[in-house]
Design goal:
Helix content is 36%, strand content 25%. It is of the alpha+beta class. A 7-stranded antiparallel beta sheet has the order 3-4-5-9-8-7-6. Strands 1-2 form a two-stranded antiparallel sheet. The termini are far apart.
Length: 219
């Protein structure tokens, strides 16, 4: 005696057995949902793995809160530039803790005023730009100092300097808070930066002998 044929399963949502087409459709939809869910899971796992790798790299890479200042060999640059220039270029012996982060011979823009420039970082991590301009005129100086007025004079190691203060709003001053300016021979010397009067005076004293020598040669 053969086994009785099983009756088709009644689908609750339909209230009747599925047709063959409905069965194929349901199975296809279930397969699609499974693949979609698996893809999302894989994306999440991949993202977590990537974030983990980035975190490891961040932890491994050494970091420092100290300013990253290059120590530029301005003496060598000055030696290369000096040829053909009458006035001796300033080559200061920097105080302990001071470094140079730039050294350039600038040909000048429309004013054609050439200049020797050294960017300095002080012991207090402030900035002073040392500029020695050849044949500078009042309009060039006014541009360099953003039309700041003379605030007074100061004599340091026998050299008299004009003192300038930037009167612009604090947010607009950039790297120019104060400046010292003097002349000798054909050169105009500018010390411009964010350093306080004490550190400006330290640099002016270091430069005094070289500036005095230029003044003597120019007479």
């Amino acid at each position: 005696m053969s086994a009785a044929k099983r009756a088709p399963r009644v689908v609750a949502e339909l209230g009747r057995p599925e047709t063959p087409d409905e069965t194929r459709t349901r199975l296809a939809e279930n397969s699609r949902k499974y693949r979609s869910h698996k893809t999302v899971n894989n994306l999440v796992l991949s993202l977590l793995a990537t974030l983990g790798t980035v975190l490891v790299l961040v932890l491994l890479v050494p970091r420092s809160d100290a300013p990253q200042n290059r120590d530029v060999d301005f003496q060598s640059v000055a030696a290369q530039v000096q040829t053909g220039i009458t006035d001796p270029l300033l080559v200061p012996e920097l105080p302990a803790g001071w470094t140079a982060n730039a050294a350039q011979w600038r040909l000048g823009g429309s004013d054609k005023i050439p200049s020797w420039y050294i960017g300095l970082i002080t012991a207090k991590t402030e900035f002073i730009g040392l500029t020695q301009a050849l044949g500078a005129n009042p309009s060039w100086l006014a541009d360099e100092l953003e039309d700041a007025p003379i605030a007074g004079t100061v004599t340091i190691a026998g050299i008299t300097w004009d003192v300038y203060r930037n009167t612009a709003p604090e947010d607009d001053r950039g790297n120019f808070e104060s400046a010292l300016v003097t002349t000798a021979g054909d050169s105009t010397y500018l010390l411009v930066g964010t350093a306080d009067d004490e550190e400006l005076a330290v640099l002016a004293e270091v430069l005094a002998e070289q500036i005095s020598s230029n003044n003597t040669e120019g007479q």
